[in-house]
Amino acid sequence: MDKKQMASHLGEAYQYHRRMELAVIDTLKQQPGGEAFWCTVATLIAGCVRLDAVFSKNGDLWRIGYDVLVRESLSSSEWICYDSLSDADSVEEDQMLAVLVQVMQKDHLSYDALAFSPLDLQKIKSVHKEQKGGGK
Q1: Which of 9, 15, 24, 41 is positioned for an S-S bond with 45, CB 3.0–4.6 A?
Q2: Neighbours of 92 (CB within 10 A)
Q3: Cβ atoms of 83 and 92 closer than 8 Å
């Protein structure tokens, strides 16, 4: 699915934002040393799935990777990190969309529905308490 089809299918739930121009990234790469940091360079949201292109630098070592995030529903504002991909080819919208579609197909994720069963926090707390020997 290309970006026009995706935007047509998802409407406002499809968004792309570039937070940093490539020239700025190139400048950061050239600067020697410095403290470790990371920043989100671009974000592509397709319904319940999001792909962030992340630039990180530690001393003279730098890289751009992708973080894949998911959310419970289209109305949810909270994102959960699902996976991190070590190497990013591009921060351009078309290439990020191709990566996102590939991840979604491989992992059977959905644009408009949660791909996981909701957690029962009370059950988790109970099991944890039993494992520590405090509950019967």
Answers
A1: 15
A2: 15
A3: no
**Phi, psi for 35 (deg, rounded to 5):** -75, 155
Instruction: Read off the pLDDT of residues 21-66 as tens digits, 9 standing for 90 and up.
Output: 888 888 877 877 777 788 899 999 999 999 999 988 887 788 889 9
Residue 36: partners with Cβ closer than 8 Å, 6 or more residues away:
56, 57, 58, 59
Question: In DSSP terms, which residues pair with 42 in a beta bridge?
Answer: 18, 53
The reply to whether the predicted model has a pTM over 0.90 is no
Residues 6 or more apart in contact with residue 127 via CB below 8 angstroms: none
AA identity, residue 115: A
